[in-house]
Design goal:
Blueprint: E1 5-11, E2 14-19, H1 22-41, H2 47-78, E3 83-89, E4 92-97, H3 104-131, H4 138-158, H5 166-179, H6 182-209, H7 213-243, E5 257-260, H8 265-273, E6 281-285, E7 288-293, H9 295-299, E8 315-317, H10 330-340, E9 344-349, E10 352-358, H11 359-369
Parallel strand pairs: 2-3, 5-6
Antiparallel strand pairs: 1-2, 3-4, 6-7, 7-8, 9-10
Helix pairs in contact: 1-2, 2-3, 2-4, 3-4, 3-5, 5-6, 6-7
């Protein structure tokens, strides 16, 4: 979870987060509904009724956005991809899926699940609109109509064929399937995404000068966001292409240091870390390897405890560590570091540790190649 957000709970094992920017869009949607939409439909309503309906409708709308992202997330989980969180923010929702799909078929399923969820919600809300008796439930029916329309619009917008929109991911999966090249597919949809973003920015500017100030600014702002995301995707693909020819074996360090398990943290720091900030420290007991020193645990430990606690108390046990093979690509290494949130990983061949690779060294390498 980023510093700019907070968690409100979990669904299906996925942390649901609210970014602070979400409050701005929540207030904007509520203000638009309470100050314009509902007064025009129900001029007899009091200000309190309009505000109450605006708040309820806005909350249900963002619950729909959350359902859209859950559609992606649950589909990803069913296909073996861990999902860390869903974050609601100023531009909608974002599911944090730990890694990219490994096949075009899985990519298609995950991408299409969100829009299908929104369309299903749109049908349900419209069914309520037509089924609720009038005039007793006119207010509720109008909320259902607005939510039905908005969910369908959300689905259609997300199906635009440009990255990183869902439609861009659907198109990427199709190009990937046909051409067998995910990097080239991403480049195609990233370029399409940029074209769509420029059209949105241009349309926003036109609307602004036609007097539709807020709508114009908002459309241009979304276009700018999509352009940034598309450009970032293109850079990522370029980097992946450069890294394809590099393996873990070319970056791993075989000069790691074995330290006894009983040594105090103070002794470990003075004897092994002070002189070499990039020490690769493997905790051992006799001929057995117990684990790797976790620098994050060390940094977060009160220095007053250094003389008391031992190396085993700031290590990640070997059994809890994921590992890489020397033949694994550096892209796979980066994904594993991001999933595991560790600073070092062992490199294993035939159940023997043959080296270590650190996150800092990988980042340095990526920066040189970027």
């Amino acid at each position: 979870m980023s510093k700019g957000s907070f968690s409100i709970g979990k669904l299906s094992g996925i942390s649901i987060n609210i970014d602070y920017s979400w409050f701005f869009i929540f207030l904007l949607v509520t203000w638009s509904l309470a100050g314009s939409y509902f007064p025009s439909v129900f001029p007899e309503w009091s200000l309190l009724q309009s505000i109450s309906a605006g708040i309820i409708t806005s909350l249900l709308f963002f619950a729909s956005v959350l359902a859209h992202e859950l559609g992606h997330s649950i589909t990803a989980q069913r296909n073996g991809l861990p999902v860390k969180s869903i974050t609601l923010f100023i531009f909608g929702g974002l599911a944090s899926i730990s890694r990219e799909p490994e096949s075009s078929g899985v990519e298609f399923k995950i991408a299409i699940a969100g829009p299908l969820t929104s369309i299903a919600l749109g049908i349900v809300f419209w069914a309520l609109y037509f089924l609720l008796p009038s005039p007793r439930f006119d207010g509720v029916a109008e909320i259902a109509f607005w939510l039905g329309l908005t969910n369908v619009i959300l689905a259609v917008f997300n199906l635009l064929p440009g990255f990183p929109l869902d439609g861009g991911r659907v198109l990427r999966s199709i190009i990937w399937k046909v051409g067998k090249n995910p990097q080239k597919a991403t480049k195609w949809v990233s370029n399409i995404g940029r074209v769509i973003s420029y059209l949105m920015i241009a349309t926003g500017i036109i609307l602004f000068f036609m007097g539709y100030t807020l709508n114009g600014l908002w459309l241009a702002f979304i276009g700018w966001f999509l352009n940034s995301a598309s450009s970032g995707s293109s850079r990522q693909v370029s980097l992946q292409q450069k890294l394809q020819k590099y393996s873990v074996a070319e970056l791993m360090n075989t000069n790691y240091i074995k330290i006894p398990a009983h040594i105090s943290i103070e002794e470990m720091y003075n004897e092994y870390i002070r002189q070499n900030k990039k020490s690769y420290l493997m905790v051992t007991s006799g001929s057995d390897t117990l684990g790797l020193v976790n620098m994050n645990l060390l940094r977060n430990l009160d220095k007053k405890q250094w003389s008391i606690k031992t190396a085993t108390e700031v290590m990640t046990p070997l059994g809890q560590l994921s590992y890489l093979t020397p033949e694994a690509g550096l892209i796979a290494a980066l994904q594993l570091f991001q999933e595991e949130k560790v600073d070092q990983l062992p490199v294993v061949r035939d159940r023997e540790i043959v080296g270590l690779i650190s996150y800092d060294d990988l980042v340095d390498f990526l920066n040189r190649k970027a």
